[in-house]
């Protein structure tokens, strides 16, 4: 498999935080790097299909943290043309025997495109973007949680959550009512408040790196 040149996504994440987050620093506590091999459809189609697809991924933290921001990478396909996102919903779920369980927290439907920022084209030639939303969710140490991100977007095009690396190699998707595990991580990062200093933000670089999707047609 061809590998892309590693780029400092962490710097791009910082730019997004500075542009849209409150006036305190945020420290990254968990990330799964994008590898640009594709995306899993996750979309509330405002042109008629409704919420036909939802992609989920899980995470487990070694310490208890309050998550105040989530950032993720997504792309447009079918066709590979940037669309107009009018809102995003970000949800946290409990784990239920290795799949998303009870809904624990939600941002609700947040108007706008979550700071959509162009990154590059993935290995399929689809335009990929960085997104982020502020939230408040306390994740207990050692507990597994699931997260989903769903944009409001009229088809065409389709929108998908780009795959990534660094997790357990398993995600989940519901597509037109059929739900099941998928053999890929998805690309996202979690942040916690750090009001005292920006110094910790230099502690890591997240490399930009994929290719799996379910198509509508």
Task: Report on the architecture of this protein.
This protein is mostly beta strands. It has one domain. The chain is 6% helix and 55% strand. It contains 1 helix and 14 strands. The protein has one helix at 9-20; strands at 25-41, 43-45, 50-60, 65-77, 87-95, 100-111, 117-121, 127-139, 144-152, 158-165, 171-175, 178-182, 185-186, 188-194. The strands form 2 sheets. Strands 1, 4, 7, 8, 10, 13 and 14 form a 7-stranded antiparallel sheet that branches. Strand 11 and strand 12 form a beta hairpin. The radius of gyration is 16 Å and the shape is globular. The two termini are 27 Å apart.
Main beta-sheet strand count, sense and barrel state: 7 strands, antiparallel
- What structural class do you assign from the helix and strand content? mainly beta
Query: What low-confidence regions span 5 or more consecutive residues with pLDDT below 50?
Result: 1-8, 10-24, 196-212
- The residue-averaged pLDDT reads 85
Could you outline the blueprint of secondary structure elements for this entry?
Blueprint: H1 9-20, E1 25-41, E2 43-45, E3 50-60, E4 65-77, E5 87-95, E6 100-111, E7 117-121, E8 127-139, E9 144-152, E10 158-165, E11 171-175, E12 178-182, E13 185-186, E14 188-194
Antiparallel strand pairs: 1-10, 1-14, 2-3, 3-9, 3-11, 4-8, 4-10, 4-14, 5-6, 5-9, 7-8, 10-13, 11-12
